[in-house]
Amino acid sequence: MTIMLRAVTPSFAAAVDGIDLSRPIDADSVRTLWDAINQYAVLVFHDQRLTDTQLRDFAAQFGPLEIGRGALQGGKRRLSLPQIGDISNLDEEHRIRALDDRRRLDSLGNRLWHTDASYMPVPVVLGILHAVTVPPASALGGGETEFADMRAAYDALPDKMKSEIDGLVVEHDIFWSRGQIGFTEFPPGERAKYPPSPQRLVRRHPGSQRKTLYLSAHGSHVVGRPVADGRLLLWDLTAHATQRQFVYSHQWRVGDVLIWDNRCTMHRGRPHEELQARDLRRATTLDTGSTLEQAA
Ligand code: OGA
Ligand code: MN
Fold first, then answer.
1. Could you tell me the domains of the chain?
2. Atom of ligand 1 nearest to the CA of 267
3. Residue from 249, 268, 276 to probe ligand 1 pocket by mutation (most atoms less than 8 Å from CB)
């Protein structure tokens, strides 16, 4: 079969047909998918049924894989592969977590607009998320995941603002993003393990050569400026960048796989009926260098 793309908008998000992600794919197909990622930043695949091993092996064809905070925390885990992130509301026994469960509250940070792992000195590239169980639609929403195009958001800024922010460096901190939702119960030692990281506010995407905003709920303030000024600027830019014309909202079906490029998008989870299971599995590819080395 040949890979077919259906664009959701001319430059952001595309649905991909004609490929089975459970089997090894050839180098040409990997290149075709990279080209599509560089153009659309978000790819949607339907009707895939991947084991965690298949998801890991598919993702590994795009780069070395991250082992996330959840897997590094130790203790019993629901999922056995450390490269697979548990994006669910389920505990080790597959029971729905209580509303006050610490891991659940930590994961609610995903409801804020963010890009993954921007608090790490070398952040990540692709997020690859696979839907195993999807909650039913409810008055609160159906647990959609939304994506915002940071390249289009950058392009739409006034020229004066572009030159104002071009060289800025932002401090990203997981404790700042979790603090925004009142979550402070980190395990002992966690603070020391994840010190804040500086990241460029404007990056150039190496695959498309487009300039892009690099914003995230983890972004705390601008280095070298009073915290308040930087924070207010980041709030303004985030409000600009998440206007609906820049957003694709994905309604999950079981079997969906989504790939997004964390270097040029933000995403957030949406609410759902909390006592219904939602089970997504994520693999993430690592970048090779700090954003500070990447001149915009
Ligand atoms: C993630 C994430 C949001 C969601 O997996 O990185 O932020 O909708 N997920 O679960
Ligand atoms: Mn995320």
1. 4-293 (3.60.130.10)
2. 7
3. 268
